[in-house]
């Protein structure tokens, strides 16, 4: 018999399944403990300035590496800017921290093929990010005509084996916000893959069964997808339960329950085409709780706890390590981490907020109790 649990106010329904105990799990007394190769975060917003200094330790305490998004003001459009941003991140890290930021470039209509060569030769830039202009936070400088203005750059990316990271939504105001990912796949992404079959593409933060099916239909090693905690545990009802919930608002927006279930099935299946990418996106509380609130969920402190919860409830804890720690570096052609982290079945309460001199940041599942507690390496 299938049972279900409902999260209070902020979450959707997650079906329980029979829980298998994999080899990575040890039982110490009454406590279950899970040992994992240290994960990486393949989609991360660290911001800059005071916000960077405030949030970077949360990611660095759990993840070995992070693909850092370039949508700052101004955006990171050159290799020189990426190198400078990387130095800022390294300076903001806690002492004795081994976290490695993997930098990206922000693709524009004016990006040159030579910039791709510089990026590859830099040793610090690992991908190029496609933001359709107007699709999300700080995307106003993004691409307006991918096939009309970016073909030479895409050709050079193929030659340099440089992955393209895609925010997969169209921005046509006539397209319903809940259909923008599906329309993007049919009008942009599928034609892109057909034109450049050797281009490595990551469809970021997928939200629909349409995206799942598309990624599954592509060749392994050429197209993959990152998946966030929020799109695994929340559906669009979570935006409105008990009133408007601004801290559950992100882009791409949460979708209906059938899409969430399709994504859970995909990531817990053991497929190598899906891997961890939190899309952790911090904003000050006052920029979320306002008449025109920002899109973005700050999940860095809770991401591993929520991923473990999803895999446990799917009876797939034996597949968690590949999703968190193997599939990402394998796709990027990077070595897997050698250090380990532990997740213990120890209930802990998520802080209501994190307070800093500039204001508060409210994390995902603020004030709620989670079952899995991660430790540092």
TrEMBL record:
It catalyses: (S)-dihydroorotate + H2O = N-carbamoyl-L-aspartate + H(+). GO terms for cellular component: cytoplasm. The keyword Zinc applies. Its EC number is 3.5.2.3. Residues 41-349 form the Amidohydrolase-related domain. It comes from the Eukaryota. The keyword Repressor does not apply. Pathway: Pyrimidine metabolism; UMP biosynthesis via de novo pathway; (S)-dihydroorotate from bicarbonate: step 3/3. SUPFAM superfamilies: Metallo-dependent hydrolases. Keywords: Hydrolase, Metal-binding, Pyrimidine biosynthesis, Zinc. One of its GO terms (biological process) is pyrimidine nucleotide biosynthetic process. Pfam families: Amidohydro_1 (PF01979). GO terms for molecular function: dihydroorotase activity; metal ion binding. InterPro entries: Amidohydro-rel, DHOdimr, Dihydroorotase_CS, Metal_Hydrolase. HAMAP family: PyrC_classII. Belongs to the metallo-dependent hydrolases superfamily. DHOase family. Class II DHOase subfamily. This is Dihydroorotase, mitochondrial. It comes from Vitis vinifera (Grape).
């Amino acid at each position: 018999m299938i049972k279900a649990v409902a999260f209070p106010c902020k979450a959707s329904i997650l079906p329980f399944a029979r829980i298998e105990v994999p080899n990575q799990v040890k039982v110490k007394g009454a406590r279950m403990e899970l040992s994992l190769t240290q994960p990486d975060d393949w989609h991360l917003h660290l911001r800059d300035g005071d916000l960077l200094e405030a949030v970077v330790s949360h990611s660095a305490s759990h993840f070995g590496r992070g693909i850092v998004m370039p949508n700052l003001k101004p955006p990171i459009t050159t290799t020189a800017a990426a190198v400078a941003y990387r130095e800022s991140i390294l300076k903001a890290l806690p002492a004795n921290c081994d976290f490695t930021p993997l930098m990206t470039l922000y693709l524009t209509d004016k990006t040159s093929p030579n910039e791709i060569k510089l990026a590859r030769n830099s040793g610090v830039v690992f991908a190029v990010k496609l933001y359709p202009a107007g699709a999300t936070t700080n995307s106003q400088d993004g691409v307006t005509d991918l096939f009309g203005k970016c073909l030479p750059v895409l050709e050079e990316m193929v030659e340099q084996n440089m992955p393209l990271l895609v925010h997969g939504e169209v921005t046509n105001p006539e397209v319903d916000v809940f259909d923008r990912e599906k329309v993007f796949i049919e009008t942009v992404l599928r034609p892109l893959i057909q034109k450049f079959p050797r281009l490595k593409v990551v469809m970021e933060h997928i939200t629909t069964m349409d995206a799942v099916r598309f990624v599954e239909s592509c060749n392994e090693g050429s197209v993959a997808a990152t998946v966030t905690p929020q799109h695994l545990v929340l559906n669009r009802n979570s935006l409105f339960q008990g009133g408007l919930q601004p801290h559950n608002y992100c882009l791409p927006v949460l979708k209906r329950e059938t899409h969430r279930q399709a994504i859970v099935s995909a990531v817990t299946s053991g497929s190598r085409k899906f891997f961890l990418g939190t899309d952790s996106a911090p904003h000050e509380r006052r920029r979320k709780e306002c008449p025109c609130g920002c899109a973005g969920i700050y999940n860095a402190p809770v991401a591993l706890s929520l991923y473990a919860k999803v895999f446990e409830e799917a009876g797939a804890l034996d597949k968690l390590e590949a999703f968190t720690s193997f599939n990402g570096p394998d796709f990027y052609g990077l070595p897997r981490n050698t250090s380990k982290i532990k997740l213990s079945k120890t209930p802990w309460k998520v802080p209501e907020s994190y307070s800093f001199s500039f204001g508060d940041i409210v994390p995902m599942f603020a004030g709620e109790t989670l079952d899995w507690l991660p430790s540092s390496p």
